[in-house]
Specification:
There is one protein chain. By secondary structure, the protein is of the alpha+beta class. It is built from 31 helices and 33 strands. The strands form nine sheets. The chain has an eight-stranded mixed sheet, with no helix packed on it. A five-stranded mixed sheet has the order 20-21-22-24-23, covered by helices on one side.
């Protein structure tokens, strides 16, 4: 998957090539269970009895205790999840600025503890008492338990305050991370899923190794009923602390170093969200409802399927056995070694013991699937799907086989397993997940129908390439902890583009990667962004790492590094890294060190890359030329900077070309800018300079007035620069206009060349940028300006729009361009476009849907058709009966683009309740509705009114919620709307007011407001 922000930023309507979030296809799968809400980031709005709270003044820790099972009342689920997060967060947020506000107000041990009645006394007395009480608490009370009876002094030797387990006994561990004294070596897991009763029984035997003498074993377990536990054959009691999803066994004596056997029997219900061991259902073409069970463990849900040491560094082997009905098959990471008939008519499959691996990569599935297979080297590659879709698996099989061969050669380490399964799971919130040997996909990201276009194939290929890269980056070598998630995701994202451009050059993936870098820059320009490597402890912090920064920025900085190193050095360093850390865990530094060793240049990779992973954001490089002397300076490119005093400095491998040689890679020259400013001396006079050759670097460049003028003049001959550079000039000048560095007049000056442009990348970038402005003007009811923007687009793109063919097309690049142009043309109601679209739709209906509409034009054609009642009805029936997931999504987008308000409300309701439209598509529905004038305010109202329901379906902080919030608010550009949005976000309290996306949304509205204020006059004047 690839970028969190596809839905958020691609408000460009015209250019939405992929209905799924490209760079974040995986992200949507990392949903928390719906009842997990981020209470920790907000003052709890529910009462916590003072005797439920234990303070440990010296370390400012606060624990909520006694909120286990025994103390829960009718609101028990809310309380339980709240307590879990409170516990986690209060213990671990000290380094997190974002949570520093309200939650810490509860951590003032003095005021709340000693003087609850002080509020009623006079100010002077209050201050005195507070000071005295702070003094007393800090210096006289080492550990203090507060109850209704007051503050009772506890044993002065206790440094840690232990929480209370569900049994009422003290839980013997006080950290969110597990102790390192005990490691798992091997798991032996037997599972019996009961698909009729939606529950499963399990038994896990864990061989553990005690590395340091200890009296406790602590591991993870969530939502399961432990029926029996034995240690070395003897029954032992198990303590559970639900808020942290931990269980513990206490021993009277120290366990000596050595290996031991721990056995746990348990029962549990299937998860009703999309993580853990969950059940899913679909209706086959005969109308029969089918059920299946599958897993999604990354990042923190293996603990919902079996008790385990659920952190990526606790690698172990796994031997899995699954009992099932004979009509189902079961799959797991490893090949099946045998099937045993059991007495009760059931069968048990046993799988080979796995490689040493992390818990989040374990997977198993019980379903009625069919498959096709092929051998690649020593591996059997298979693609699984429901029987109705067996014709749609072949493209994926071919693609996976080719990519597996590529990676085997590229990494010089063969994929180590004997089988690799790729499984399409119906009704699946996720996009894809790289479970070792058993990769799971959403149907759209794996299956390719007869009518699918190369653009649909580009999406499937991208996701397969990404997941296969994980078999090395992530599965073989794994980040030690989630703070370095980018080592997994940035790398897999980079490798996905690199492998596709090698193996499938026809898919035009480089243009896609360029767009991804532009999106990453836009996201990272906000103050709400974060460094690539960030401190994470709590579950919600772990979830939030699955975002554009880890994926897209991670991939972008790797591209920049590869472009800086000499040919072959990057690959050599990567191979060395994989060999050195094979089957173990790493941190960012390990990768940089491996790459430093192979670099023969004077580039200190570690020193350079460090600056790109520890600072949030990216640099703006300003170029001022005076003859042959060029002054270069860098600063943080930060929208809405205010008075920020940011002195971050990056080590920028600055590349540049001039008119004497500007197209070939060999033209590129490099200057390493490490300081705030530097002087570059040119050997001779030049007409112009273009920095950041092919936009391989993760920075934006601003020129002085002359510099821009020279470049604009140079563009009179379009081919003077590669198309990536032309696209980047357009991207950068719009970004600089948002930053207030250039006027919109200057933007339009540059855009004058676009009439001569023919390449996809610059044209789609220009359409995207103009489309964004058009939509904002439209929604501000600046009708006059919106209509002038429409004329501007007509004037600059009209002839290209007219010249597009409506026939089947094979070139991805041409399809990308024409679908962008025609979707924009039809959305602006250009007569030729809507007439052609209607013609194709009528032909399709008349032929009983056998006529083939070019797949890349399907969304455009359907959107035009959806504006009439008849067309809408036909499309609704198509949506309900289609067995092609890609077609279904395009149809749904069209349905949601209706301008009929009643239909808009109907579709909002149906997609949220899941009755006629799949709930997994709710974010897409909101996104599509919000792009159009008719429905965006209704959608916003709907989100506000149904926030409770929405957060039951999608976890607070999840990608789905991020997309919903961004779609619903990014079209606002007035003070009234800003206040309205802020009021709503503030009212969310525990239900999300502290989410990063809320800051992002607010920043975006402010940015829109500022841009409009600064540029409305210019637009009046020049448009
Ligand atoms: Zn990934």
């Amino acid at each position: 998957m690839e970028s969190t922000n596809h839905l958020n930023q691609q408000e460009y309507g015209a250019i939405e090539r992929a209905p799924l979030p490209r760079n974040m296809i995986e992200n949507s799968m990392f949903e928390e269970e719906p009842d997990v809400v981020d209470l920790a980031k907000e003052s709890p709005s529910y009462p916590i009895d003072s005797d439920d709270v234990v303070y440990e003044p010296r370390s400012s820790r606060l624990l909520v205790r006694g909120l286990g099972e025994n103390d829960l009342d009718e609101d028990e689920e809310d309380y339980e999840s709240s307590a879990r997060l409170l516990g986690m967060s209060f213990m671990n947020r000290s380094s997190n600025q974002r949570s520093a506000s309200s939650s810490y107000t509860r951590q003032q041990p003095s005021g709340s503890c000693s003087m609850p009645s002080a509020k009623t006394t006079v100010i002077g007395v209050l201050i005195l008492v507070v000071v005295v009480s702070i003094f007393m608490v800090i210096y006289f009370v080492p550990g203090c338990t507060f109850t209704r009876n007051g503050c009772s002094k506890t044993n002065s030797t206790i440094n840690k305050i232990f929480p209370i387990s569900t049994s009422g006994e003290l839980f013997p561990w006080t950290e969110l991370r597990l102790p390192s004294s005990v490691h798992p070596v091997r798991y032996d897991i037997s599972l019996h899923p009961d698909l009729k009763n939606m529950s499963f029984q399990g038994s896990v035997s864990i061989k553990v190794e005690v590395l340091h003498e200890t009296k406790i074993i602590v591991l993870h377990s969530s939502d399961m009923n432990i029926t029996k536990a034995t240690f070395e054959g003897k029954v032992v009691p198990v303590l559970e602390y639900k808020p942290w999803q931990q269980i513990a066994i206490k021993f009277p004596e120290d366990l000596k170093k050595g290996t031991y056997g721990l056995n746990i029997d348990y029962t549990a219900s299937f998860s009703n969200s999309y993580d853990g061991f969950y059940n899913s259902s679909y209706v086959d073409t005969n109308g029969t409802k089918r059920v299946l069970a599958a897993t999604q463990f990354e990042p923190l849900a293996a603990r919902k399927a079996f008790p385990c040491f659920d952190e990526p560094a606790f690698k172990s082997t796994f031997l899995i056995k699954i009992t099932r009905e004979p009509n189902y098959i079961s799959l797991s990471n490893m090949p099946k070694v045998k099937t045993t008939n059991l007495k009760n008519g059931l069968q048990e499959d046993e799988f080979k013991e796995s490689e040493t691996m992390s818990t989040y990569l374990v997977a198993f599935i019980v379903a009625e699937f069919i498959s096709y297979s092929r051998n690649v080297s020593n591996t059997t590659v298979s693609v699984y799907a429901v029987p109705d879709k067996k014709e749609q698996v072949h493209y994926a099989l071919d693609t996976a086989a080719k990519l597996l061969e590529f990676y085997n050669t590229f990494f010089e380490i063969d994929y180590p397993l004997r089988k690799l399964d790729l499984v399409a799971i119906p009704d699946f919130l996720a996009g894809a997940m790289e479970n070792w040997g058993l990769i799971t996909f959403r149907e759209t990201t794996l299956l390719v129908g007869n009518n699918s276009s190369p653009i649909d194939k580009q999406l499937v290929t991208s996701v397969i390439a990404h997941e296969l890269a994980h078999q090395w980056f992530g599965n073989l070598v794994t980040m030690r902890w989630w703070n370095d998630l980018w080592l997994n995701e940035g790398f897999a994202t980079y490798m996905q583009y690199m492998s596709i451009s090698n193996v499938f050059p026809d898919l035009d993936i480089n243009t896609e990667f360029l767009n991804v870098r532009f999106k990453a820059l836009a996201k990272d320009a906000l103050n709400s962004s974060h460094p690539v490597s960030a401190v994470v402890s709590t579950p919600e912090q772990v979830e939030e790492m699955f975002d554009s920064v880890s994926y897209e920025k991670g991939a972008s900085i790797l591209l920049m590094l590869n472009a800086t190193l000499r040919d072959g050095e990057f690959r050599k360093g990567v191979i060395e890294y994989l060999q050195k850390y094979n089957r173990s865990n790493t941190e960012s530094e390990d990768l940089w060190n491996s790459l430093s060793q192979v670099s023969k240049q004077n580039v200190n990779v570690s020193e350079m890359m460090h600056t790109w992973t520890v600072h949030k954001g990216f640099p703006l490089v300003t170029v001022k030329r005076n003859g042959t002397q060029v002054t270069l300076s860098q600063e943080h490119f930060l929208l809405n900077a205010g008075n920020s005093m940011d002195d971050s400095l990056w080590h920028i491998p600055l590349t540049y070309v001039n008119e004497s040689c500007s197209v070939l890679s060999s033209c590129k020259q490099v200057f390493h800018l490490k300081d705030k400013t530097a002087i570059l001396k040119l050997p001779g006079k030049v007409k112009w300079l273009k920095f950041n050759f092919r936009s391989d670097g993760f920075y934006i460049v601003h020129y002085d007035v002359e510099g821009w003028k020279d470049l604009i003049e140079a563009l009179q001959n379009v081919t003077v620069l590669p198309c990536e550079d032309r696209a980047a000039l357009i991207n950068n000048i719009f970004a600089l206009s948002r930053l207030g560095k250039v006027s919109f007049r200057q933007v339009l000056n540059l855009m004058n060349y676009i009439k001569n442009e023919t390449e996809t990348a610059p044209l789609t970038e220009a359409l995207f940028q103009l489309g964004q402005i058009y939509r904002l003007l439209d929604k501000r009811s600046e009708l006059n300006l919106a209509s002038r923007m429409k004329s501007y687009i007509d004037d600059h793109f009209g002839s290209l729009m007219e010249s597009q063919s409506w026939e089947l097309e094979t070139s991805v690049s041409k399809m990308t361009l024409r679908s962008a142009l025609l979707e924009m043309a039809c959305s602006l109601n250009r007569l030729n476009c809507t007439t052609q679209a209607k013609r194709l739709f009528d032909q399709w209906v008349d032929s009983n849907k056998t006529f083939q509409i070019p797949s890349d034009l399907m969304t455009t054609v359907f959107k035009v058709a959806a504006q009439t009642d008849d067309g809408w009805d036909v499309l609704l029936s198509t949506y309900k009966h289609s067995i092609c997931d890609a077609e279904k999504r395009k149809t749904l987008e069209a349905l949601a683009s209706t301008q009929d308000v009643r239909k808009i409300i109907w579709i909002l309701q149906k997609s949220l309740d899941g009755s006629e439209i799949q709930t997994q598509e709710f974010p897409l529905v909101i996104h599509t509705i919000c792009k159009n004038f008719a429905g965006y305010l209704y959608a916003w109202d709907f989100v506000k009114e149904n926030w409770g329901k929405i957060t039951q379906k999608f976890a607070v902080g999840s990608f789905a919620i991020q997309s919903i919030i961004m779609s619903a608010t990014s079209q606002f550009s007035t003070k009234t709307h800003l206040m309205e949005a802020q009021n709503f976000f503030n009212s969310l309290g525990a239900k999300g007011s502290q989410m990063r996306i809320v800051q992002e949304a607010t920043e975006t509205i402010k940015q829109n407001m500022r841009w409009m204020e600064e540029n409305l006059d210019t637009l009046q004047h020049w448009l």
